[in-house]
Specification:
The protein is α+β, with helices and mostly antiparallel strands and 158 residues long. The protein is built from 5 helices and 6 strands. The model has no long low-confidence stretch (mean pLDDT 85). The protein binds flavin mononucleotide. Flavin mononucleotide (FMN) binds next to β1, α4, β3, β4 and β5.
């Protein structure tokens, strides 16, 4: 079973959007190699349409450049990115998405893929305390941290 087949098997029915890209950071990369149905619903595009293109297709006027720069730096450094972005669906309605993205390395230690867990979140009302992670709550998936799902991946990574 290849890595992508393994991802496909466990990500297929997940309520959390899961997307895997290649490890090329220079434009037009990273390129989407796999996305589950929940990702298609989140992005408002059929999955078949997003395979082969960059996740940048979700960006728009209110997608904050400084956050994208942080994202790009994390990818280039082979580090995890966990943050929030304003994105746009196929019909151009906007939403806030929580993204937990990390590199997946092969046995030689080289990055082969990036994998992200994504879900729509809504800004919490009032004045929450506890930093950026407490300012948003999940819209419809679950309140559990995305990170618990990503721990499963330890099974696949050296
Ligand atoms: C697995 C993965 C998922 C991503 N998902 C999103 C996303 O949902 N929304 C988004 O705006 N950017 C997403 N990106 C980030 C863009 O693809 C790109 O890396 C980012 O815009 C920074 O690169 P740039 O500075 O060249 O634009 C994702 C990247 C990866 C590797």
């Amino acid at each position: 079973m290849t890595f992508l087949e393994a991802i496909r098997a466990f990500a297929h029915d997940s309520a959390v959007a899961i997307v895997v890209t290649d490890a090329k950071n220079e434009k037009p990369g990273p390129i989407i190699l796999y996305a589950n149905e929940a990702f298609g619903r989140l992005a408002g595009r059929p999955v078949a349409e997003v395979i082969g293109i960059s996740p940048r297709f979700m960006q728009g006027r209110e997608t904050r450049r400084p956050v994208l720069d942080t994202f790009a730096q994390a990818l280039a450094a082979g580090e995890r990115f966990h943050g929030y972005l304003t994105n746009y669906r196929g019909d151009r309605t906007k939403y806030v998405v929580e993204i937990d993205c990390r590199p997946l390395r092969n046995a030689a230690g080289n990055i082969e893929y990036f994998l992200a867990f994504e879900r729509e979140v809504a800004r919490r009302r009032g004045r929450p305390w506890g930093g950026v992670l407490s300012r948003f709550e999940a819209v419809d998936v679950s309140d559990a941290s995305l990170t618990s799902g990503i721990r499963m991946l330890d099974a696949f990574t050296p």
